[in-house]
Amino acid sequence: MLISYEWLKDYVQIKLSPEELANKIEKTSVEVDSVFKRSDGLKKIVVGQILSIKDHPDADHLHITQVDVGEDEPIQIVCGAPNVEIGKKVIVALSGARIADNVKIKKSKMRGVESNGMLCALDEIGFDKSIIPDEWKDGIYFLPDNARVGDEVYNYLGMNESLIDLDVTPNRGDMLSVRGTAYDLGAVFDEKVNFIEHASAPTGTHDTDELISAKADPNLAPIYKLKVVENVDVKPSPLWLQIKLWNSGIKPINNIVDITNFIMVKVGQPMHAYDLDKLNSKDLEVRNAKDGEVITTLDGNDRKLTSTDVVIADDKPIALAGLMGGKDTEVTSETKNIVFEAGVFDPVKTRKMAQKQLLHTDASQRFERGVDHGNVEAALEYAAGMAEDLANGESEQGVVNGSNEEVQPRVISISASYINHVLGTNLSVKEIVSIFKRLGFGVEESGDNLTVTVPTRCWDLKIDADLVEEVARIYGYDNIPSTLPITQTTEGGLTPKQEMIRKSRETLEGLGLTHAMSYSLTTQEKAKMFMLRTSSETPLQWPMTEDHAILRMNLISGLLDDVAYNQARNVLNVPLYEQGRVFYKQDEDQVRPDEVEHIAGAISGSLVANSWDQKAKPVDFYQIKGILEKYLASLSLKGHITYVSTDKMADMHPGRTALIKLDDHLIGFIGEVHPKVAKQFKIKETYVFELDLDYLYTAPKSGQQYQKVGQYPAIHRDIAMLVDENVTNADINKLITRRGGAYLQDATVFDVYQGSNVPEGKKSIAYSLTFEDPNATLKDETVDKAVDKIQKRLTNELNAEIR
């Protein structure tokens, strides 16, 4: 929120510079983003008066003007603005001036005619286009008639005011107003705050309830009030009011709308004004919208509503409660009778509606953080009084209450000893009472105990802990002594599960994969892909975007997004892994999903780049399977790992996918992404795996033991055989390992062949067997017996033909 340093000084005495004040606010209240003046960096921009105008001989849209800038002779300026007018006071950038964006103005010729400066629009001297009044958005700006020719323009436009940009946190909604900030600074500096505003007395002859009625559901709007002002003259606001608004970052519209925005900035109460004569019914209601209702808001957008939205309605919605009014009841220059609206809307419903409608406004920002329930009617009366003064209106008697909760100051009991205990201070009761009184709180003392009455403008203070925080703020965080906590220290470390996760990362990175992190939220389609088990979805009630609406049930879809991102930027070799949680639900009725730790990998392209001694080779099933086997071996699992071919996973290539089992339990899968899915993600051929890391953590482990390097020679034997082509390496390896005896250390495939000289339906496969006795020299006779036994079992059990 932008707040004017000079405006604050109208209500509280401040002896610090704007920069020093900003630093104090940061230390005691909220963060400050910046301090600046709109005139910073500008020079030689003065008040001028147009003396004459004639058309440019060589350009239809250009005019040659003679402008008095307070010098001995008028200067000639060529201008293309459509609204130049003789006698008007205007903004003139002289030759050598610096305007917005540090642009320097020089003498020049425009279509052959000399121009000695520039007539400026507001945006050309640094005003943001979003705050420029509509009447000036397409032309130069006219200064007030009393502006003195030759003076710098900055004071006339409020550009010399120091503006402090507050970054207001959700718990400090009171500082979204000049009033709240002034009271806060009054407490910080121990200065009296002079913030008394008196509304003009109503001059109308009617009671407001004769002209309009209202009703509101207290659950939607605990306070809702209306007041009618008749016979208003809607016109541009006086310059002082426009300056207050644009220095607060708000665009002036007209005097009625500007009154509502001025009061919102000044006292923190959002308001709205309706054209009374445009209402279809004089009975307003705060209610939930009906599914399918539509409203065109003031920004010109048609908004389709649902039953979760809250609206103000006559016989149809005329405003989104707490957000924005409707176009149909907009106050314009033809408006004669108005209805001012002020209230308190439910902060949760307001925020959800703002998110759903993508409509975050100054009003919704304040309702979400809370407003002063005790100041609603006073703000309404203040607005009506201003309408009398600035729009010559007639404020009618009384207000209409659609809902009106009883508002009382909050009373909190606390003790001085408790405050000192929490803060580690030694403040006296007198010092604590003084701090509360500086804050404007009522205090009753009873020895060490205090009864504190908190005014309604401090609605965020509810419990004794809040009072402790206020004492700390005002006393000064820098004044609180620094002490070390008195506690028993414990040795830090990782849990066994954390150690396993860290080791998993180290292993996969050592095998050439790079750690990736994806969003836990994804689309409905991607959430249901690559699933290890059936599960119901877990949708968000209020997703920020459609792409992040469902909790993921796999890691691979996120990795494929990462692969696509890299390959779209010509990074073709992408080896990634991710460790994270997926979210499963047994059924739709389960409220909170089960969080399960998974680990997954995705490799596309080559693991090895082209170099002088080797060529890049696209990754294949066996390469990623080798990586996975190395990783699983590092976990020292007791059980037996098997790979079972499957064609049941729709997102995986049916001929290049295997389920991974630990004994008989499914722990994951590995294989190639289905070509159709790869095309959907816009990626090249990619191989992936995903494992249930939680199950691997709980699975029995073998203790890792040191194996002494053998001192006796090993004996090697080769076995070649013909087997049916449907016999797998796993089948053969399992049999060899089981029947090879105590001295068999390793069995490795070194040749596989199908083709000429091999019968159809058969394949030739050869293994190298390694035998070793760690305690003695192994004899050939012992090895021969083991090999004979293996060959016999291969022949009997797998119908192998030994070659």
From TrEMBL:
<dbReference type="GO" id="GO:0000049">
    <property type="term" value="F:tRNA binding"/>
</dbReference>
<dbReference type="Pfam" id="PF03483">
    <property type="entry name" value="B3_4"/>
</dbReference>
<feature type="domain" description="TRNA-binding">
    <location>
        <begin position="39"/>
        <end position="154"/>
    </location>
</feature>
<dbReference type="InterPro" id="IPR041616">
    <property type="entry name" value="PheRS_beta_core"/>
</dbReference>
<dbReference type="GO" id="GO:0016740">
    <property type="term" value="F:transferase activity"/>
</dbReference>
<keyword id="KW-0648">Protein biosynthesis</keyword>
<dbReference type="InterPro" id="IPR020825">
    <property type="entry name" value="Phe-tRNA_synthase-like_B3/B4"/>
</dbReference>
<dbReference type="Pfam" id="PF17759">
    <property type="entry name" value="tRNA_synthFbeta"/>
</dbReference>
<keyword id="KW-0820">tRNA-binding</keyword>
<dbReference type="GO" id="GO:0140096">
    <property type="term" value="F:catalytic activity, acting on a protein"/>
</dbReference>
<keyword id="KW-0067">ATP-binding</keyword>
<comment type="subunit">
    <text>Tetramer of two alpha and two beta subunits.</text>
</comment>
<dbReference type="InterPro" id="IPR009061">
    <property type="entry name" value="DNA-bd_dom_put_sf"/>
</dbReference>
<dbReference type="InterPro" id="IPR033714">
    <property type="entry name" value="tRNA_bind_bactPheRS"/>
</dbReference>
<dbReference type="InterPro" id="IPR045060">
    <property type="entry name" value="Phe-tRNA-ligase_IIc_bsu"/>
</dbReference>
<keyword id="KW-0547">Nucleotide-binding</keyword>
<dbReference type="InterPro" id="IPR012340">
    <property type="entry name" value="NA-bd_OB-fold"/>
</dbReference>
<dbReference type="Pfam" id="PF03147">
    <property type="entry name" value="FDX-ACB"/>
</dbReference>
<feature type="binding site">
    <location>
        <position position="460"/>
    </location>
    <ligand>
        <name>Mg(2+)</name>
    </ligand>
</feature>
<dbReference type="InterPro" id="IPR005121">
    <property type="entry name" value="Fdx_antiC-bd"/>
</dbReference>
<feature type="binding site">
    <location>
        <position position="466"/>
    </location>
    <ligand>
        <name>Mg(2+)</name>
    </ligand>
</feature>
<dbReference type="GO" id="GO:0009328">
    <property type="term" value="C:phenylalanine-tRNA ligase complex"/>
</dbReference>
<dbReference type="InterPro" id="IPR002547">
    <property type="entry name" value="tRNA-bd_dom"/>
</dbReference>
<dbReference type="InterPro" id="IPR004532">
    <property type="entry name" value="Phe-tRNA-ligase_IIc_bsu_bact"/>
</dbReference>
<dbReference type="GO" id="GO:0000287">
    <property type="term" value="F:magnesium ion binding"/>
</dbReference>
<feature type="domain" description="FDX-ACB">
    <location>
        <begin position="710"/>
        <end position="803"/>
    </location>
</feature>
<feature type="domain" description="B5">
    <location>
        <begin position="407"/>
        <end position="482"/>
    </location>
</feature>
<dbReference type="GO" id="GO:0005524">
    <property type="term" value="F:ATP binding"/>
</dbReference>
<feature type="binding site">
    <location>
        <position position="469"/>
    </location>
    <ligand>
        <name>Mg(2+)</name>
    </ligand>
</feature>
<keyword id="KW-0479">Metal-binding</keyword>
<keyword id="KW-0460">Magnesium</keyword>
<comment type="similarity">
    <text>Belongs to the phenylalanyl-tRNA synthetase beta subunit family. Type 1 subfamily.</text>
</comment>
<dbReference type="Pfam" id="PF01588">
    <property type="entry name" value="tRNA_bind"/>
</dbReference>
<keyword id="KW-0694">RNA-binding</keyword>
<dbReference type="GO" id="GO:0004826">
    <property type="term" value="F:phenylalanine-tRNA ligase activity"/>
</dbReference>
<protein>
    <recommendedName>
        <fullName>Phenylalanine--tRNA ligase beta subunit</fullName>
        <ecNumber>6.1.1.20</ecNumber>
    </recommendedName>
</protein>
<keyword id="KW-0030">Aminoacyl-tRNA synthetase</keyword>
<feature type="binding site">
    <location>
        <position position="470"/>
    </location>
    <ligand>
        <name>Mg(2+)</name>
    </ligand>
</feature>
<dbReference type="InterPro" id="IPR036690">
    <property type="entry name" value="Fdx_antiC-bd_sf"/>
</dbReference>
<dbReference type="InterPro" id="IPR045864">
    <property type="entry name" value="aa-tRNA-synth_II/BPL/LPL"/>
</dbReference>
<dbReference type="InterPro" id="IPR005146">
    <property type="entry name" value="B3/B4_tRNA-bd"/>
</dbReference>
<dbReference type="InterPro" id="IPR005147">
    <property type="entry name" value="tRNA_synthase_B5-dom"/>
</dbReference>
